[in-house]
Amino acid sequence: MMEWFPVFILCAAYLLDLIIGDPRWLPHPVIGMGHAIKRLEKRIRRHVCQPDGLKKAGILFPLLIVGGAWIITWALLKGLGLIHPWLAIGAAVLLIATTIATKGLKDAGMEVYAHLKSGDLPAARQALGMIVGRDTDRLDEPEIVRGTVETVAENIVDAIVSPLFYALIGGAPLAMAYRAVNTLDSMVGYKNDKYLNLGWASARLDDIANFIPARITALLLVVSSWIMRLDYKTSCRTIKRDARLHPSPNSGFPESAVAGALGIRLGGENVYHGVASFRAYMGEYSRPLDKGDILSTVRLMLASSLLFLLLGILVIWSAGGALWS
Prior knowledge:
It is built from 12 helices and 2 strands, in the order αααααααααααββα. The chain has about 325 residues and is mainly alpha-helical. Strands 1-2 form a two-stranded antiparallel ribbon. The chain is globular, with a radius of gyration of 20 Å. The two termini are about 15 Å apart. The model has no long low-confidence stretch (mean pLDDT about 95).
């Protein structure tokens, strides 16, 4: 019976996140990771100033933050398991749930959709501004829709499939280590003057960690579009043609899959702090983007995440339940 607990843990963690998400009253591990990253950055910059030194010191982030997240989680579960196995199982469910953001991603997309549906463009711009880095104060409805669709599609990988993928092969410790990788990338993985040298290792590790999950996600989106009777054939063609045009080695896969499935074009000009930046197009322009595209993208996100969960159960079943041993 114990051999099949990975199935229970993965399903319970996914459902827990889908139902309650990340309540603000509940302490979140990412907050602790963020504090640790800031403290480490301060200590490094206090002693290192030269570009070469910062580049070497940048390796400390993956070693200490990612390695620390794995060790702390492993030690916690090991200690709880010595008290009672169910304590460790319950903790594993809670910890894995914190690495997933299905409900948060769905709610963020649907908030923008609700404001557009009510005709409140300022509120829609503000809601979009909470989840993207681009300037949103002058966007019209199609551009608000594009930003929302791109963000939801891109985050299917790092908010859902990647943490589930690493939980599947390494339990809560590896899922938490992945979340540390993703948190590092969001805090120090920028290609600007401040973090180009210090954050290079964190950015590269995030690219590597999401490489396989991004491509799995693209396949899941094609299957999901077939189930939902969308244009799965164009989705597949768009992935092959456009996915590698994206500046990220991974984000183009889910974005191009969604663009093809919905028959829309993503990409184009974005403005960051007043500076325009052009991103390669994904998909063909056939019609203006509509608020309904947000709803379809959220549904594709939910369908693909459920498909991955089912795929994980099949993997555990084929392994006879003997995972994480």
